[in-house]
């Protein structure tokens, strides 16, 4: 049993490594246009609220994409380019808000809300179970009086 | 009829009751924390979206790192408060802004005309990348101080609504007027003459 578990675990680790390796090799093998698109997908259009830089046709975004392509040609990595945009234009240009400072709330809030909801659901279920218990006891025909009434009811109906 | 003693009321075991209370307290604390966090975030957003500086109110001070070759004799980092005693024209622009192209030549001409009379023009480049921004400045042979508004700090302080937008600051460092449109030479001269009077 233990051996099977270990084999399963080893297989999962191997699979994860293969997938990660393939992804990384894929990103490195992309041309400048594809890499530009991949990086632009992680940034926001600075002038259109909530729009992705990669999919935005405005002049501003065209310039930003040209800047990304230029920096890629200069040998900069995706991380360096994203850091450059963040440093110049602030965290609002990032598609994903950073998991620190004030924006941490945006990551924690949904999880917290789910936990509160789960807690409330568990509480409600427990209460419902406690309320049903005495009712079930009362309907049990162990009590001779209840059994007598039940028999009477069954006879009449 | 014999009065039989009532059966003791069934209660939850003390341990499970304590657990239940702890559970409720934790859920409530988490809820309060969550709401508090969201409230704090909302307050932050509201404080960032305050009112624009009105005419007569002090112009928000700022520091602007000037592009090399576009310093007009000023230090690398220009501070607005260092220009007190002069009339300042703060022009927000961007190389991707079509309307900005309409006023660029007028701004440069009027700057050259008024610079000896105690007027300073400051170009604040908004949401721009360096190469197109420098190409824009070169295209219009702009010589007044210009720099990139890093992280849009100045734009946020002045609550601009877009570009181009121009603020006229009087000699006492107060906002005299804000214009949300491309300016002509006549527009600029009329306002500057009034402020220099």
Question: What does this 3D model show about the protein?
Answer:
In chain A, 71% of the residues lie in helices and 0% in strands. Chain A is mainly α and 157 residues long. Chain A has 3 domains: 1-30; 31-96, Helicase, Ruva Protein, domain 3 (Orthogonal Bundle), CATH 1.10.8; 106-156. In chain A, helix 2 packs across helix 3. The longest helix of chain A has 36 residues, at 104-139. Chain B is elongated. In chain B, helix 2 packs across helix 5 (185-196). With 197 residues, chain B is of the alpha/beta class. In chain B, the strands form 2 sheets. Chain B has a 5-stranded mixed β-sheet with strand order 5-4-3-6-7, with helices on one face. At the A-B interface, helix 3, helix 4 and helix 5 of A face helix 1 of B.
- The CATH class assignment of the largest domain in chain A is Mainly Alpha
Structural domain count of chain B? 2
**Assigned CATH superfamily of the largest domain in chain B:** Glutaredoxin
The chain pair with the largest interface is: A-B, 30 and 28 residues
| Shape label of chain A | elongated
**Number of H- or I-type helical stretches of chain B:** 5
Helix content of chain A: over 70%
CATH superfamily of the largest domain in chain A: Cytochrome C biogenesis protein
List SSEs of chain B in N-to-C order.
HEEEHEHEHEEH
Which residue ranges of chain A are poorly predicted, with pLDDT under 50 across at least 5 consecutive positions? none
Radius of gyration of chain B: 30 Å
Low-confidence parts of chain B: none
What would the principal axes of the Cα set say about the shape of chain B?
elongated
Give the termini distance of chain B in whole angstroms. Answer: 111 Å
From the coordinates shown, what is the CATH architecture of the largest domain in chain A?
Orthogonal Bundle
Task: Give the CATH topology of the largest domain in chain B.
Answer: Glutaredoxin
Q: What spatial order of strands do you see in the largest sheet of chain B?
A: 5-4-3-6-7
- Average pLDDT rating of chain B: 90
Query: What share of the residues of chain B does DSSP label as strand, in percent?
Result: 15-25%
